[in-house]
Amino acid sequence: MQRLDNPKLEKRLETIALEALSSDKIHDNVRDFISQKISNKTFTVLPGLVDVHVHLREPGFFYKGSIRSETAAAARGGYTTVCSMPNLNPVPDNLRNLAIQYAIIDRDKYINVIPFGSMTIGENGKELSDMKTMSPFVAGFSDDGKGIQNADIMRQAMEKARSLNKVISAHCEFDSLLNGGYINEGKYSKDHGHKGISNESEWREIERDLLIAEETKAPYHVCHISTKESLELIRKGKEKGINVTCETAPHYLLMDDSMLEENGRFKMNPPLRNSSDREALLNGIIDGSIDMIATDHAPHSIEEKSRGLRDSLNGVVGLETAFPLLYTNLVKTGKITLQHLINLMSINPSKRFDIAQRDCVCIYDLNDSYTINSNDFLSKGKSTPFEGWKVYGKCIATICNGKLVYIDNDLKEELIKKEQEINSKQFIITKEENPKCKILSTYLT
Fold this sequence. Notes:
globular, TIM Barrel, five-stranded parallel sheet, 16 helices, four-stranded antiparallel sheet, alpha/beta
């Protein structure tokens, strides 16, 4: 079983875990069992995972997901910090709207949540949001879900972001090139009578944005790249010294459009591309051209995902499956090391978005194998293209800011089978005051 490259870091992570487990709120049997497994290296302690692209759905879309349900799902996946996207109601395009979101976060979060502010008012792509006043309270700025169609607006946003030392996180998509498409333009779309989305709709906007980023010297991050052309443009941009990073998602690395089914759980935007795109992205992971992996976790109601490929809404969930999927298919197969995966899922996103995690770890049993079953998800969203996949790596516990926030429920059953008395809840939460919310609360009065 692979270990992290830095033994000192590994020891520090284990110490954080053992100190958190010493809480008197934790049953002795649970503490002793996990501590023993850590000491004998049966369980692996890893840095808390960081996802810079999630949709938590509050405020505005509680029926799809909530801060409580989706951060619970994140904790179950080993995540200790997530950055939430701004396609909400109200859109966080000013301090008052952002304060509404922070009030819910402070009340209901299980882990750290750092919102993105929108780039434009109402994500309308026409007028910049109140970027300056929101800047101290956000991870960066994005109009995720929509591409910025106007080059002048993107230039204004990048200039403002550079002055604030904040990252522009761009959903890249030219509407004029979509042509009514809703899955990838390729053999499957043609064979099944579906309208396809071309690769060009994505990479053409990246091409434009890279020129603006070079001109403005703004920190520019490309969301969920899915095409080989996008990757090559970003590679060349980095070679030219442009301040650009990018992310992709597990489904673009592990699936392609030959695996599509007539089911809404295979529909997301960008869509699953062809095998050559998937292979290019895998190579980008291996050679370091892709900086990080984000889930684009996007819960919807069952009804919204039950309309087939054409009419279902875009988006799948991924916080509870990302690490085991990537560990199983990239690390266990020898494509990358465990350390490389942790760089992609924790270290690199933290550096790029200036995220400081304090005493945040997750504890994994990397030998535990199981089949992904969406009925087990804590997320309100149940739509995953990985239903039924066998994976290795189960999150046993997650510790955020030195506090235990998740324990695997199967652990309770295992201890009961061993006739050890236990009385514990799945989640043990200690509320901590969020100073940003305290500051922003003044805008609600």
